[in-house]
Amino acid sequence: QVHLVESGGGLVQTGGSLRLSCVVSGRTSNSLPVSWFRQAPGKEREFVASLNRITSPNYGNSVKGRFTISRDNAKNTVYLQMDTLKPEDTAVYYCNYWDSWGQGTQVTVSS
Prior knowledge:
Helix content is about 0%, strand content about 50%. It has strands at about 5, 10-15, 20-25, 35-40, 45-50, 60, 65-70, 75-80, 90-95, 100, 105-110.
């Protein structure tokens, strides 16, 4: 069983930046990605970004060029650097590995 804990959410103004962290504990595969999803009120959960140890990262269309996913294997942590934030980025952000999900961290972007 993989356990995921997110942190780093908060309130930021339009154009600002935040960095989310996801600490991953448990046994993971090099080929399966750790992913970030988000869910805004009244909307479906949306793919944001994913990264495994083998291939290049993938990004959702709405965040390409603004968000960067990375990992620190020594710290078992996956990061989501979010730049040029927009009000439409407001959501609860979740870390995911296979069928495991974190508890989520709230990101609010004020206009």
